[in-house]
Specification:
The structure is a homodimer. Chain A contains 8 helices and 12 strands. Chain A is an alpha+beta fold. In chain A, a hairpin with a 4-residue loop joins strand 1 and strand 2. The longest helix of chain A is centred in the first third of the chain and has 17 residues. Chain A is globular. The two termini of chain A are 28 Å apart. The interface between A and B is large, with 42 and 41 residues.
Chain lengths: 284, 284
């Protein structure tokens, strides 16, 4: 039904994305605040704009509000407002209605970069595969919450207050990115969408996947909700210069796209098949 | 929290609106199909654009889907697609997720008319108050469904497949409309929003309120979900010419705005206070 990219590109180059967060599916109010949910609802939509190399322009939000707990609307609105200020994406309108569970649906309009929106389908053989930041922290925090354990330092924040990589998306587009996606379902699954869309294979190196202390390779490959960007580009030097020019850390180089459809993960000199199996929906 | 108009007007004049339909709040699948819900979700958003005198450009939809009944997603999508074709508002993207009840949230981007978007707050003393079409049919159908009775001819369709008055909104803007709103909560309530926003009073004539056969004045004043347009304009002749030029029936003239805050309804020569009490949410 839907055009399969992070955001739709309209005739005049503007971008349009929507994502809904549903209680019990995408979040659990035992593990995060209603303000966190508001923040995240705007963040994941801005992340879709970032994944096109774009800049958010404005957002609207529709809230479905249960009767309990009281004050929910104000808390969600406060989180939305914080995120709107942080991402320079004003919230210009919305709708509130009653309903059985909290649902926060945001839609964002954005601008494409001058070089044109970066789709999922442009990766070519010999392109380098990149990823920004560090992966797996959101998964580590979620696992800790589920086990009733203390979350390792810094991980809870990554889970409940993801930051869309807007500057990195713009730098990637400026550096010649051929395909890009944000990591919501896990690196393996989301890189898989680029490979599916582009009709290429890949060989990535496990040790090259950037992850924080205490994060397993599995968590980094299959843990969702990181909202870092994965992209491909023909010239790594041009990418590095674009990131440096923007004052950003250089993205990690994971490996290279290959002609064909095979997907390889190299760990300790051993090549194994890279499964695209992410997790379906984290419940932070 | 939100800017209180049908749609937000952005810096470049583009319009942005969102509305959610929630099962058990806005609709009941005993009385309408899932395709009707898809249609209506796009229709009410396009109606918000119509109420600004605008033209819809593109829409996105986010669906929250319960496990039962099967096939729900396809049915909703079919209704959305029908409406998208009918209103020339392509559905460019979306999101689907699981959840406890069906929620369909649509966001629409539109274009303002050349003369600028028509807000709710521009009505002035001596402006004439207009309404398009006929009111009350959706309320009559809903009452019949609730009573387990046959719906009078033509009323069910008005309830489940409302048509945004896009051409009328454009004609009203071209004819100098000073304030406009679509009728979702009932004429009295929605006209009340114009009066609140504009700081004027009104005197309208009950007999002038257009209603179909079998529709009481109460149903026409307080019944929601009609999605006709109510607007004000200084020169009724200019409005009539704009509607004629667009090949549309002339809108009904209900009365006149007055300085001050008093709201009068004249019925049979007797003046009584016009309550703004609409209904909160019809459940068709």
């Amino acid at each position: 039904v839907w055009i399969g990219d992070d955001a739709a590109v309209m005739g005049d180059g503007s971008l349009f994305a929507t994502d809904a967060l549903v209680a019990g599916v995408h979040f659990d109010l035992r593990w995060c605040s209603a303000a966190d949910v508001g923040w995240k609802a705007l963040a994941v939509n801005c992340s879709d704009i970032a994944a096109m190399g774009g800049t958010p322009v404005a957002a609207v939000a529709a809230l479905v509000l249960p009767a309990e707990p009281p004050g929910l609307a104000d808390e969600v609105a406060a989180g939305l407002a914080e995120a709107a200020a942080a991402f320079s994406c004003p919230l210009v309108g919305g709708d509130t209605t009653s309903g059985p569970v909290l649902v926060v649906t945001v839609a964002v309009v954005g601008r494409s970069p001058a070089s044109g929106a970066v789709l999922r389908r442009g990766a070519r053989p010999d392109d380098t595969v990149f990823v920004t930041g560090q992966l797996g922290a959101a998964k580590v925090a979620l696992d800790a919450h589920r086990a009733g354990e203390q979350t390792p330092a810094g991980t809870h924040e990554r889970m409940v207050r993801p930051a869309p990589r807007l500057a990195a998306g713009i730098a990637a587009a400026a550096g010649g990115a051929t395909a890009m996606i944000d990591i919501s379902d896990g690196l393996a699954a989301d890189l898989g969408h680029i490979l599916d869309g582009s009709g290429v294979g890949v060989e990535i190196v496990g040790n090259a996947v950037p992850r924080g202390p205490g994060v397993s390779l599995d968590a980094a490959l299959y843990g969702g909700d990181d909202y870092e960007l994965c992209f491909t580009a023909p010239d790594p030097e041009v990418i590095d210069r674009a990131f440096s020019a923007a004052g950003l850390a250089r993205p990690a180089r994971l490996g290279v796209c290959r002609a064909g459809s095979e997907r390889w993960l190299v760990v300790g000199g051993t090549r194994s098949s890279l499964s695209s199996q992410g997790w379906e929906h984290p419940i932070p």
